[in-house]
Amino acid sequence: YHRRDQEVKKDLEWIYGLFPILRERMHQVAGTMSGGEQQMLAFGRALMSRPKLLLLDEPSLGLAPLVVRDIYEVIKKIREAGITIFLVEQNVNMAMHVADYMYVMEAGQLKMEGVPQEVMRDEDIKRAYLGG
Questions:
Q1: Residue 40 and residue 11 share a domain
Q2: Which of 50, 47, 49, 67 is nearest to 59 (CA)?
């Protein structure tokens, strides 16, 4: 996929606004970046195609807690920009803060679904996924 339109520069500036570190690393080989920086780069590349739907599979996996917090702040901004996000995430605590609707799966089976506030009221869910 290759874009040539005039909006590329504008979109790139938006990405740099979401991930300022990418501007600093623009000439760095991706394989030499930290895990968090590589995750940010993957987000940026996906967003440059102006998706209507963005599938995020375990965006917090293997990242330091501070980086996870930053990634979820960006997920909120992407959502606010009107991009639909389909999020697959084991970090339920973070996911519930950006979700409009949740599906809880266990061993390939749907265990529960609903708005986050409803799902998190379930005692079994709290115990299993939030340690409560």
A1: yes
A2: 67
